[in-house]
Design goal:
The complex is a heterodimer of chains A (200) and B (475). With 200 residues, chain A is an alpha/beta fold. Chain A is 38% helix and 28% strand. In chain A, helix 2 packs parallel to helix 4. Chain B is built from 18 helices and eleven strands. Classes of the chains: A alpha/beta (200), B alpha+beta (475).
């Protein structure tokens, strides 16, 4: 009995030693997918934005607008409401959507309401301090034709340390003059999060 | 596990020699942290934070983060509070994975060698405080996220607790902890405040069901205001059938309709957190090892036999007692309700009193009750290991036996860890007010309805708008 207890104690100490850890930091490419907690992250944001813009560009609303107005449509990305139980950096998703729209080359994107306030502040400042040949005029802002709005919903299911996370991002492009929805799209992200029951 | 061998009186003398040292055992977690309550009662937030930071988290890291987030919330440092609570939530999720080395150490030392994982009712309070933090920072969208998280956090924590429990009856008792009428109701109010009527109705309906099912657990009946919420949102947004179904099931939920149509205005909601939650305490149990204990087929069976023996409260036996095991087990201390039991809100010629909404002390007691069998089992497994080690050492050398017994006695401590700064009870007061700026008077009332103290708060009410406040009273 004493021998077995001694062996047991040594094993416990060894396990505790193995469990010790130190902080390490490694630089990784920003496009590398790293999932730690299973929560919504930068990769989800980029994937959702890319998928929504791809869907949007594959539908005829841009061509319809071109035929009707003879110019590229102007879009403002509005609010994407987070209706999940996770804090999602919606601003990152909005920025990803704006970038994807701009990079598509088929759509003009104008500044959001929050950004406009800052820009107008700067323009106001120019009226006093900028030279006449560089000062920017009031009343020449480009109005958006469409607003992109949407929401993020989720369903989580878990049991015995396993969790399935399902996110759905729904987006709508609404004609700002007529309230007509010219495009609706959605993208889904499903994740399986497994947690180990035991560690050393 | 190796079959342990009950042995005779060899080490009994050694046991007696060191028994006197039990009194010198270390103080429990609660005893050594109670001063935190005094610091909060004196509203010395920084002193309390320094006290929390001065103690190394170690196995109590989660408690350190919870209490840090809590004190920062009361100190009005909302962003820092959320950061601490986020760390606590991350750590709680991480601790789902159990450490084998800690579990092994707990078998030879005590349960304090295992990371504290938080009780379900404790972890469920984190979104409540975080929601108020976000509201105070003017971010109602983020508060909604917390509202959605609240009941999920409770269910998740209960599932993790059930995983630790073996006996079906204990698991069943733990399942009753899985829902909270108050958290559903609070979530519903936050949803309604942001115009999410569908989410609000579902939350109110779940609140009603949880209050009705949990009345024996918390002693709290569904608040009358909840019935009005159900009726108002349900009838306005097309859930008439569901409302009628609930009315048929639980007519008491729906008070007599209030007079007149809805007046323009908004509503002030004050959640009162009063007193101190009942802490865990430690009690020493003496349970005999009988000469007939050799009949047990395994040490697990033997430990469960000792659980039954301890639970029976029997003190005399017809067979020979070989040894008295002395073990430390957690028990519930008394809640401290404090002098204030309710609040009265007054403004613009109207007033309203709070109604009880939740009882955290009773939730704490129900949690321990569900865990008790498993805690006793682990305690007796450990006691048998210590007993066998003492006997084995004493067979080799009496001094060695004495030392092993001394180690066993001095390390025998119950796990009384708990989130000490939580309130005893929650109650909710609601006051509809016309649009505009109001001086809201809050009277803190004792059990007899006398004002203990009062304060005024300026609130801006908009038509259809909601103002959420939480107030804490200590002893």
């Amino acid at each position: 009995m004493p021998h077995s207890i001694a062996r047991f104690a040594v094993a416990v100490i060894a396990l505790i030693a193995i469990a010790g850890c130190s902080t390490t930091v490694t630089r990784v490419p920003t496009d590398e997918t790293i999932d730690l907690s299973g929560r919504w992250n930068d990769t989800d944001s980029q994937q959702a934005a890319g998928a929504l813009v791809d869907q949007s560009m594959a539908t005829p609303w841009v061509d319809n607008h071109l035929m009707e107005h003879g110019s590229k449509p102007t879009v403002i990305v509005g609010t994407l409401r987070n209706k999940t139980p996770e804090h999602i950096a919606v601003k990152t998703l909005v920025a990803d959507l704006e970038r994807s729209f701009i990079n598509s080359g088929r759509v003009t994107v104008v500044a959001s309401a929050e950004e406009r306030d800052e820009i107008r502040g700067e323009r106001e400042d120019q009226q006093t301090y900028a030279s006449d040949d560089t000062v920017k005029a009031w009343g020449r802002e480009q109005g958006a034709d469409y607003m992109l709005i949407g929401e993020i919903n989720s369903q989580f299911d878990q049991e015995n340390g396993k969790e399935v996370k399902y996110y759905q991002v729904d987006a709508y492009l609404v004609d700002l003059e007529t309230n007509v929805k010219v495009w609706t799209g959605f993208t889904k992200i499903k994740k399986f999060v497994g947690r180990s029951k035991y560690k050393p | 596990m190796t079959r342990l061998r009950p042995v005779g009186a060899g080490a009994r003398a050694a046991g007696l020699a060191v028994a006197v040292l039990t009194a010198a055992g270390c103080a429990t977690y609660v005893a050594s942290n109670l001063e935190l309550r005094d610091m909060l009662a004196a509203r010395d937030w920084q002193v309390a934070l320094d006290r929390i930071d001065a103690r190394e988290g170690g196995r109590d890291r989660l408690l350190e983060l919870l209490q840090r987030g809590h004190v920062l919330h009361y100190a009005g440092r909302f962003e820092e509070s959320n950061a601490a609570f986020q760390q606590a939530e991350d750590l709680a999720a991480e601790l789902y994975t159990r450490s084998i080395s800690q579990a092994a150490a707990s078998l030879i030392v005590n349960d304090l060698t295992v990371d504290y994982r938080g009780k379900p009712f404790e972890l469920a309070m984190v979104p409540f405080y975080r929601a108020f933090n976000y509201l105070a920072m003017g971010d109602p969208d983020a508060a909604q996220v917390e509202a959605r998280k609240a009941t999920l956090a409770l269910a998740e924590a209960v599932e993790a607790t059930i995983r630790e429990i073996q006996r079906p009856e204990d698991r069943e008792a733990a399942r009753k902890l899985q829902d909270s009428g108050f958290l559903h109701w609070f979530s519903g109010l936050l949803f309604e405040s942001e115009g999410a009527a569908n989410d609000a109705f579902v939350a109110y309906r779940n609140a009603a069901r949880a209050y009705l099912a949990g009345a024996s657990l918390t002693g709290i009946a569904p608040p009358a205001e909840l019935g009005r919420d159900l009726e108002r949102v349900g009838l306005a947004f097309g859930f008439r059938d569901e409302v009628e179904e609930l009315r048929a099931t639980a007519p008491a939920l729906f008070p007599a309709p209030t007079a007149g149509p809805r007046q323009p205005g908004g509503e002030v909601v004050v959640v009162l957190e009063s007193g101190w939650v009942a802490p865990r305490d430690q009690v020493m149990l003496n349970v005999p090892i009988l000469d007939i204990d050799r009949r047990y087929g395994s040490d697990d069976d033997w430990a469960w036999g000792l659980v039954d023996r301890a639970s029976s409260g029997r003190s005399s036996y017809d067979v020979d007692i070989e040894y008295w095991l002395t073990v430390a087990v957690p028990t519930m201390g008394k809640p401290d309700p404090g002098p204030v039991t309710s609040v009265r809100l007054s403004a613009a010629g109207a007033s309203a009193e709070s109604l009880p909404a939740d009882d955290l002390s009773r939730r704490a007691a129900a949690t321990l009750e569900a865990e008790r069998g498993q805690i006793l089992f682990k305690t007796f497994v450990r006691a048998l290991v210590k007993y066998a080690a003492t006997q084995a050492a004493a067979n080799e050398d009496e001094t060695a036996g004495l030392l092993v017994n001394l180690f066993g006695v001095l390390t025998e401590r119950a796990d009384t860890r708990c989130w000490l700064t939580l309130p005893d009870r929650l109650s909710v007061a609601r006051l509809p007010l016309p649009p505009g700026r109001h001086e809201l008077r809050i009277d803190y009332l004792d059990r007899a309805g006398n004002t203990v103290h009062a304060e005024t708060e300026t609130v801006d009410v908009t038509d259809g708008g909601w103002v959420f406040l939480n107030r804490r009273t200590f002893s």
